[in-house]
Amino acid sequence: MAEEHKDKKHEKRRTATQAAAFITPMVKEFFKDTLRTRAEGKQKLAYTFICCHHEEILRAMDILPLWTENFAGICGAKRDAERFLQRAESLGLSRSLCTYALCGIGFDQWREELGEMPPDAPWGGQARPDFMISSGQILCDPRSKWYQASQQFMPDVPIYNIDLPYPLYDQKRDHRKVWGYYHKYIVAQLRGLVAFCEEQTSKKMDYDRLSELVDLTDRTWNLIHETYELRRAVPTPMGTGDAMNTMVPINFWMATQKAYDFFIELKKELEEKIAKGEGEVEDERYRLMWGGGLPSWFALNDFNYFNGKGASFPVETTYRSVVPLYEMDIPKTKDPIEHIAWRWLWYWTFWYEKARKRPESEPDVERLITWIEDYKIDGIVMHEAFSCRTWHVGLIWQLHQLGKIYKPIPVLTLGKDGKKEKTYRGLPSLILESDIIDITSYSEVDTRNKIDAFIETLESIRQSKAA
Q1: What span, in angstroms and rounded, lies between the C-alpha atoms of 135 and 462?
Q2: Dihedral Cα 102, 168, 367, 463, nearest 10 deg
Q3: CB atoms within 10 A of CB 367
Q4: Between the CA atoms of 233, 13, 48 and 175, what dihedral angle is there, to the nearest 10 degrees?
Q5: What is the phi/psi pair of residue 424, to 5°?
Q6: Can you list the alpha helix ranges (DSSP code H) found in 277-394?
Q7: Are 408 and 316 in contact (CB under 8 A)?
Q8: Which of 226, 251, 333, 407 could be disulfide-bonded to 50 (CB atoms 3.0-4.6 Å)?
Q9: Percentages helix, strand, coil for the chain, rounded to the nearest 5?
Q10: 3-class SS at 242?
Q11: Is residue 246 within 8 Å of residue 287, measured between CB atoms?
């Protein structure tokens, strides 16, 4: 089945914005830069993970981060992950594990065995790191174990594990009561990372530069929020399909002027599209939310299929976790490390207080409710990726909780005898099932049949409301 997918002509996803179209060549250039850096040996390279809020530390130390999840996603998008997944399986690892990790481990083993990049490696391949920085974040087990597995083939490459916890949500307890303890612990973890980087690079941290980069990140966060809020417009000027490209600067270029400048241009483009009344979809009939789950990187053109049915995606929860700092009550501090720690705590607990005001809610559900109302959402699409249990667990439960809030409404449909009958439906939802990069789990026919049925439901509700 993998060969069948690989041989089949793959339609390239059409973007709605110029900014999203620019991402692919920029990422290709990044990979070329990492390979040049590796060959020159003048700068340290580090394997690491996104959403750890340590970009400023790495960049201030002139360390080039290699985002291993990014490379696995590229392999999936190019429909060239299967051979690396199979190599990981040959090492005794199960296909049921995180396929990001399996792809990375399989690639590392092959590269080390050959002493060079595997043949026809996507975009030149992933460079060998000088060290690896992992973080489980009490969220994702592979983030703690992935690099340990890869270290079997690179025993000379050290690992530093940074622990970044945050208070778990409790409806009856105020998380702020333990913030001081968590903040102190996270600051100690970040200082430990600084010490490790100093040891690996043989130079001291420049805290003035670190402060400048922290300030740049804060300004970029606010700019991203302002830019994405423009998507509330009807019709929306940019959808989730494009956002799966524009997430690259958010997750891989943060603490760089390039990321800030990118969103300056994207914001300008969206404002111009709104002024002209241009939308992602020419005739926008249904406004949908990508309500959870990483996408199938090999099937992003499914968003074009939705668009062709008149459906747009003004908002998504995936890679949309950036919230404006001016809505955070961050204590004033001149210490950039302390600021990063406070920002981390706010990042994970931003929706806690709002969720406590609604008994049937919780933070992820509260975020869905807020954006359903703010973006005038007609239905929700979620994706259950079988190998990513940590991020995707609870999605069905979230839909169940939404069902308690958005009560079913009467909808007229045609019965088997051709007569109109009344049925009751709440906020329509669609759950897609596949994987992030394992294309053998995907059926385009089944997926699009599900989309067709979902669109029919949305249309019946739209007509009933109009009547």
Answers
A1: 45
A2: 70
A3: 23
A4: 30
A5: -120, 130
A6: 302-308, 336-349, 352-356, 363-374, 389-392
A7: no
A8: 251
A9: 55, 10, 35
A10: helix
A11: no
Residue with tokens 């069902």: 403
- Which of these, 65, 72, 55, 48, lies nearest to 125 by C-alpha position? 72
* Phi, psi of 161, deg, nearest 5: -105, 120
Q: Which residue has the tokens 């019946």?
A: 460
Phi-psi group of 92: left, alpha or beta (phi > 0 → left; psi -120 to 50 → alpha; rest → beta):
left
Helix (H) or strand (E) holding 318: none
Helix (H, G, I), strand (E, B) or coil at 425: strand
Of the candidates 219, 217, 247, the one whose C-alpha atom is nearest the C-alpha of residue 19 is 247
CA-nearest of 85, 128, 71 to 439 is: 85
Distance CA 37, CA 41 (A): 6
* 304: exposed, middle or buried (Cβ count in 10 Å: 0-12, 13-18, 19+): middle
Strands 286-292, 409-414: parallel, antiparallel or unpaired by DSSP? unpaired
Contacts of 24 (CB under 8 A, 6+ apart): 245
The overall pTM is greater than 0.85: yes
Q: How many residues does the chain have?
A: 467
Q: Where would I find the H helices in 277-335?
A: 302-308
Instruction: Record the tokens describing residue 360, joined without a space.
Output: 């049937």
Residue type for position 236:
T
* Pairwise CA distance, residues 232 & 242, whole Å: 15
Q: Could you tell me the two tokens for 188?
A: 């100690």
Tens of pLDDT, residue by residue, the chain (467 residues): 444 454 445 566 788 899 999 999 999 999 999 999 999 999 999 999 998 999 999 999 999 999 999 999 999 999 999 999 999 999 999 999 999 999 999 999 999 999 999 999 999 999 999 999 999 777 788 888 999 999 999 999 999 999 999 999 998 899 999 999 999 999 999 999 999 999 999 999 999 999 999 999 999 999 999 999 999 999 999 999 999 999 999 999 999 999 999 999 999 999 999 999 999 998 999 999 999 999 999 999 999 999 999 999 999 999 987 788 888 999 999 999 999 999 999 999 999 999 998 887 899 999 999 999 999 999 999 999 999 887 788 899 999 888 888 866 555 555 556 555 555 457 899 999 999 999 999 999 999 999 999 999 999 888 877 76
- Cα gap 33→56, rounded to integer Å: 19
* Pairwise CA distance, residues 90 & 242, whole Å: 36
Cis peptide before 235 (omega within 30 of 0): yes
DSSP 123-191: GG-PPPPSEEEE--TTT-THHHHHHHHHTTT-TTS-EEEPP---PPP-TTS-GGGGHHHHHHHHHHHHH
